[in-house]
Design a protein that fits this description.
The complex is a heterodimer of chains A (106) and B (134). Chain A has 2 helices and 6 strands. Chain A is an alpha+beta fold and 106 residues long. Chain A has a single domain (2-105), classed as Double Stranded RNA Binding Domain, CATH 3.30.160. A 6-stranded antiparallel sheet of chain A has the order 2-3-4-5-1-6, with helices on one face. Chain A starts with a strand and ends with a strand. Chain B is built from 6 helices and 7 strands; from the N terminus they run H-E-H-E-E-H-E-E-H-H-E-H-E. Chain B has 134 residues and is α+β, with helices and mostly antiparallel strands. Helix content of chain B is 41%, strand content 19%. Strand 2 (30-34) of chain A pairs parallel with strand 2 of chain B.
């Protein structure tokens, strides 16, 4: 239901990576801020679900990163939908893009 | 008054909708507001509410019943199992919270985020301000 990716980019690059990913995924990101997502983040609603781009750093210094297998000061991307197979086009786009470094996380 | 509601009447409407919606899901559940709507600033950068990016309303719902359900659904728990991750829209439907989230979002013209906690003390342990929405 949630497909996770690590993005090889630092937290300070959040906005520029959102612009690149909007082109790669062909989605329209909206800027947000939430303590639940570690501060500033971007999300895009699509018919099959929602895409989230955020830092891997949670709200408090003592918190573990959202994704333990990824550097805390880098970005993470979530594809959240009813069925994983709905995201084939986006998965292909992420796996083949040369514009940013993308690693699928477990 | 917390940030993001615009007026006392809007806050009252929000509380009323939230209370009625939660009663359908878990009559024992209690709702609290966390994050920049309470502090008036971004938790990481310190930027004032809504000044850089539009702030969500972060709802902390205390419900041992829903935490148990989240665990059964395979939703990731954090803080030693005392809270869920921020729920995704796809999670809200099985909880019966999807329509409530949409209504609250329309009322405030903001994204409304949900996190389920096992107890109020689990919210308090975070050490950041929160307020009751009773």
């Amino acid at each position: 239901m949630i497909i996770k990716f690590g993005i090889k980019a630092k937290e300070r690059e959040l906005d520029s990576i959102a612009e690149i990913l909007a082109g790669v995924l062909k989605v329209k990101f909206e800027p947000h801020e939430s303590s639940f997502r570690g501060g500033e983040y971007w999300s895009a609603e699509v018919p099959k679900g929602e895409v989230f781009l955020q830092s891997n750093r949670d709200e408090l210094p003592e918190d573990d990163p959202f994704e333990s297998g990824w550097p805390i000061d880098e970005l993470i991307l979530y594809l959240a939908g009813e069925e994983d197979e709905f995201w084939q086009k986006e998965l292909h786009a992420l796996e083949t893009t040369k514009r940013i470094g993308v690693v699928r996380l477990k | 008054m917390p940030w993001g509601f615009g007026s006392v009447n809007k806050l009252r409407e929000f509380k009323s909708t939230l209370s009625a919606g939660l009663a359908n899901v878990d009559p024992e559940a209690e709702a609290f507001l966390r994050g920049s709507a309470v502090t008036g600033k971004n938790s990481q950068s310190g930027a004032p509410f809504d000044s850089v990016k539009r702030s969500d309303l972060d709802l902390a719902i205390v419900s041992p019943k829903l935490v148990k359900k989240a665990k059964a659904m395979g939703i990731e728990l954090r803080s030693r199992g005392n809270r869920t991750v921020a729920l995704y829209p796809v999670h809200l439907r099985p909880f019966g919270l999807s329509d409530l989230a949409n209504t609250l979002s329309k009322q405030t013209n903001r994204k409304v985020s949900f996190m389920i906690y096992a107890s109020e003390s689990a919210i308090k342990d975070r050490g950041t301000p929160y307020i009751s929405l009773r």
